[in-house]
Amino acid sequence: MATLYLLPNWFFIYSVIFEIIFALITGFVAFYAFRVYLLCKQNESKLLSMGFAFISASYVLWAVVNLSLIDRLSDGIAAVELSNIISLGMIGVYTHIFLFIIGLLTVTYTNLKVNNAKVFSLLFILSVLALFMTESKGSAYYVLATLFFGYIAATHLTSYIKNRNSKSLIILVAFALLFVSHIYFIFAARSYIYYVIGHSISLAGYILILFGLILIIKNEQKKKSPRSNKRYSSSHK
Fold first, then answer.
1. Fold of 3-228
2. Is 41 left (phi over 0), alpha (psi -120 to 50) or beta?
């Protein structure tokens, strides 16, 4: 029996609201990342946009899955188990997991600073094998997500040490929070409190990512504004 998480009755509506908020925030992140791509024409920004678009879609499905649990909350706590996946919508749950992992994998790939389809394909194949060749798919899903977030946080830590600017710090803290939140999700099958804490920390992380991207866009727009170009030209006369 592979339990994804325990969902308490009192947190049910909040859980769905959180997931809708996550979907909206990650959708906005995808939009702003694409705007950065239009400004800078960097392939990394385009991939980042695609990654967060997948993650946003996965949260929409997660909200739908939890809504399907409404008739199972009479006992106070619902155990979301893969053995009962048919009642929840097999396609919905597995599609949520697939979209989230492919999205997170894409975001991780942008942090590798390589442009090699073979590297991406290898990471994708290894991720799929890790998910579907284990009996405890729920644990494998959260462990895999934790590893990806941990790697992303580590790369941004390196970037912050080199640059020491506020934007780098914001993104570092954001991914560090998402890393910590998914550590809690690993234990969400044991107690619902981990599921609740994980959601709360994830919300803070995604808000910081959105805030950081908005700052990056404003900075790029200033660089490309006519006034900034005039100042640059006058300073080099």
1. Rhopdopsin 7-helix transmembrane proteins (1.20.1070)
2. left
